[in-house]
Write a structure and sequence with these properties.
homodimer; alpha/beta
């Protein structure tokens, strides 16, 4: 699985719009890879028999849809045994936005159960003995395997950034509520954030702008190096040696390429919010899945059933306290960017773990989901097993373009360093 | 239609828990009124053949569910011609919470089309030539008519407080996101707020606490008079003479009963946010209903179709600017309560208009929905047509109990003044 096996959404869109390729031909781009590897990688929960091209800036671009988003024309199972044949009456808002921009739905991609931790069938394209990460497992793996040039997913803990890192693709978790979650099966409404996967930050920015009309596309002509703050915190003892070496190496290369790189120690008010993620998610999940827990407990995985049961001990006061802690931390986040444009830190403790029973640890993501800041995963290298190493670029709230632009600069800088 | 025709949720729950009445008997309480008046009032979009009692603090309490909330066992049409036979696969979170507390679903109640402005069939129980208000038309009218002791609805502009005022029932729009909207058909996700209707503030507080576990129930032993700020602003020239007289009369009575009553002039930073509601709703609605607009435009009312089309000219920048204006105003809201516990102001410009083609004006509600503050409508009198006059009590964000308690104090004070 090399970088070159990935499809570029932006290049495909350009080929189609300049009529060097028909949209129909473009949609065939992933077919060979799917035919060769789907039975092994299990990216799709539903693969349509035929893809029909749309019209617009995403004409010819096939987009994998994590199976927690409603689609009117494809079964939507939410990764649960409760809904094997469920067909929603309407598209989720984001699916509708993608179709309107001319994108074609590549299929529904495997999610963990209700986008929580119980893994689905997807394997890591770089080595099938390793997890692809979760919960957006199929979306990340499908982009990595060249099945489709772009995909959407959701992050409640670390479900965009972590699978992007483990699969070696670019992943973008936008500022909270920048993109609609209407028509998404919610797990924790204060945290659930939609996001995108593609071969590069520039590809992601193109797709996100095309479907939303937001000014997100990368400025290709800018060579301006970002001011980077390496975020250091109390959980850094969890960082693997490979990851730590990669972080240092990228910082050094960035400095050589003209970037200002400083170290930022996580302030107390922000670090205090690490403990707020669990009670917020834990209070909301049993309410979001109240119907499933009440009527179909036996069809939930034991792990999820136990979690939902245990979480019922979280009181409204616990929840309100956690929300207050999170709000204080959000205010403190402004100060993080006094001296830098973006933060840079590991997307996960290390590379993908060798297991299919877990999707890995989201501890490097939860805080940033809770803060609502835009995060972009970039692939910065490989470990000894040839598994991708991912770092995340984080910008201030609402400065999504800044995060994408800095991620693009780093991707270009690393590509130049390699060559 | 007298005040006495309404059913008290709290009294019913008490009768059942103390075994003076069975839950089954309690559920029959609204049946005579329904049989006598449903064909005239058109409260229900779906009326189940049989009601089954649950167990818990709401055992025997029938709750009307606005037909924008998903219910697994009843058709859910969202007030739209697109979904005449739609049966969701699961309950909305709030429906599930109510059932878990022992409540029985009284039926699905009429909503305007997608909870926007195109009216449904419901009439005002006080006079069928007048609108019941909207969009939670059936929920408010059903409580007023004694069909059920409690109901739930949603407010995006003024869809809880306005129909509560027009129908003469107590209505509660909680702090934004205090109760989950999971399983609600969204119109504008930054504004859509769930809420409750019942015969009194104490009844509402009982139901809201029973289903959420939040400390909201009225302290009956407290006789402490609230500090009341009469909120005056630039739109007060829209207030009808009847409404203005009622506001002055209530202020005078409250003062006599020991309340401190002052006047608060709407600060500039808050008043500036009045213009932010329209672009926020207008940007989000076409995304929320993107699927319906794309695939079933001919099944939308012309009014809604035109609105969704026109709104597509609202840019992400317009939207972001409006969100920033709203955020500044939210911060300024803290200062409103420096010298008072609650604000008091009209729930609508006047009483229900004599029309069935409109649900009235939400101008006195939009700002407070956008601010996310808890609002409670109380019925303070009648106009010359015997139509109810409603005022709203507003408390600081998260101080929902304070709003309910002050509303209760005013309701008790007015009942004493009448007798």
């Amino acid at each position: 699985m090399s970088k070159n096996s990935m499809l570029s959404a932006r290049s495909i869109a350009l080929e189609v719009s300049s009529k060097r390729m028909t949209a129909k031909q473009a949609l065939q781009a992933g077919q060979t890879a799917i035919d060769a590897a789907e039975s092994r990688l299990r990216v799709f929960s539903h693969l349509p028999k035929k893809l029909t091209a749309g019209k617009g800036p995403l004409s010819g671009v096939a987009v994998g849809i994590k199976d927690v988003f409603d689609t009117y024309d494809m079964p939507t199972g939410y990764g649960s045994k409760i809904y094997p044949l469920h067909k929603p009456v309407s598209d989720a808002a984001l699916v509708s936005m993608l179709r309107r921009a001319g994108a074609t739905i590549a299929g529904k991609t495997v999610t963990t159960e209700f986008a929580w931790f119980t893994p689905g069938a997807t394997r890591n394209p770089h080595n099938p003995a390793f997890t692809p990460g979760g919960s957006s497992s199929g979306s990340a793996a499908g982009v990595a395997a060249g099945f489709f040039p772009a995909a959407i997913g959701t992050q409640t803990g670390g479900s965009i950034i972590r699978p992007a890192a483990f699969c070696g693709v670019s992943g973008y978790k936008p500022s909270f509520r920048l993109f609609p979650t209407v028509g998404l099966k919610h797990f924790s409404w204060s945290l659930d954030t939609i996001g995108f996967f593609a071969a590069s930050a520039a590809d992601i920015a193109y797709v996100a702008q095309a479907c939303s009309g937001r000014d997100l596309a990368i400025n290709e002509s800018s060579r301006k190096a970002p001011n980077i703050g390496i975020y250091r915190s109390s959980i850094d003892d969890l960082i693997s040696p490979d990851m730590e070496a990669a972080l240092k190496s990228v910082a050094k290369l960035a400095r050589s390429a003209g970037a200002n790189v400083s170290t930022i120690r996580g302030p107390k008010a922000i670090e205090a919010a690490r403990g707020a993620h669990a009670p917020i998610q834990g209070y909301e999940a049993p309410l979001s899945l109240g119907d499933e827990y009440a009527r179909n407990p036996q069809k939930l995985s034991k792990k999820l059933r136990d979690y939902l049961k245990d979480c019922q001990s979280i009181t409204p006061d616990d929840y309100d306290n956690a929300r207050r802690t999170a709000n204080r931390a959000r205010k403190a986040c402004h100060g993080l960017f006094d001296k830098c444009d973006v933060l840079l830190l590991p997307s996960a403790p290390g590379t993908a773990p060798r297991t299919l029973k877990s999707t890995g640890n989201s501890i490097f993501n939860q805080l940033w989901t809770l803060m609502g800041l835009p995060c972009v995963n970039i692939c910065v290298g490989r470990d000894e097993n040839n598994l991708p190493i991912g770092l995340q670029v984080i910008a201030p709230f609402g400065k999504d373009k800044q995060a994408l632009q800095a991620a693009h600069w780093l991707e270009m800088m690393l590509a130049n360093a390699e060559s």
